[in-house]
Amino acid sequence: MAAAQAQSLSWDQGLRSDAPERYTVVRGDTLWAISGRFLSHPWQWPEVWQVNPQIRNPHLIYPGDVIYLYDCNGRPCLGLERGQGEVRLSPEVRRIPAREAIEPIPLDAVRHFLRDHRVIEDPEALDELAYVVAGDDRRIISGAGDRIYVRGDLQRGLRYGIYRVGDRYSDAATGELLGLELVSIGRARAERSEGDIAVMELLSANQEVRNDDIVLPLEEYELVSEFLPRAPDHDVDGTILAVPGGVRFIGRLQVVALDRGRRDGLETGHVLQVEQQGERVVDPRTGESLRLPGTDAGLVMVFRPYEKVSYGLVMRAVRTLEVGDRVHNPRRGMEVAQQ
């Protein structure tokens, strides 16, 4: 492979002061974590490991590979040693099973979340969706293996998700309703219909299915497994809306809901800095109420943008994050702790 020059980084900027000369990749590593050993900002790995920004995550790294620093025409580059001989990272793509390569981020956390959560962007459409009207033998709650009756237009033989309304996402400043969170209760298959009443078999349930639960076709959303982390190319200023599940205090690798979405320019892979609001104090001379500057507290990467809201994964948290913390474009001028 050809050498990849770190065009935007120099030896004294962008690299961690304690960056190792060599690092051997181990099972369980992620590209983000490996980059964090070398770079002050791990999400900048595409600027070091590829020349062409149009190529999505071309570097495929495996346990046992060795990443090392070397001089590339006066700038730092990352080299890669495999089992036989020495190669350099480049924008060439090799077709290999994804399970063998090191993941860009801990994807299991994202996969599990997407299976169990989704957003309705038009809450007014909620009344038009199919819903559970009864359980077998007049039960008001049902479990896996039971039959349920659903009112709505369902297709025989298809599998559906059963959901319950969770959080209502609203803009704190304007009051605009941004969407409704739906939490997965289980899955069912439509067996037959009479009029607008369908008989369904419950295939799985992680909670008891109740009357009025919502029935929807399973969401066809393919998880992007080759994230290209990057800062938004325009200013984004929003807040953490909620933590699905009702948790208030937030740590690393937790999912958060943000009050910005596709209409605000957010895309999969966009990295945002979390800033905690500064304390309010009283000026000892004038008696004025003053707000102290905010404190950088972490990084969030967007993995599922909707029109008005987004879900993001906390990739770094140097302090406990909270609902209401501000998110904005990341600053590059400060070295951060490895995560």
Automatic annotation (TrEMBL):
Gene3D superfamilies associated with the record: LysM domain
Domain of life from the UniProt record: Bacteria
Domain LysM: 21-69
One Pfam family from the record: LysM
Signal peptide, first to last residue: none
Transmembrane region(s): none
Descriptive protein name: LysM peptidoglycan-binding domain-containing protein
Lineage of source species: Bacteria, Pseudomonadati, Pseudomonadota, Gammaproteobacteria, Oceanospirillales
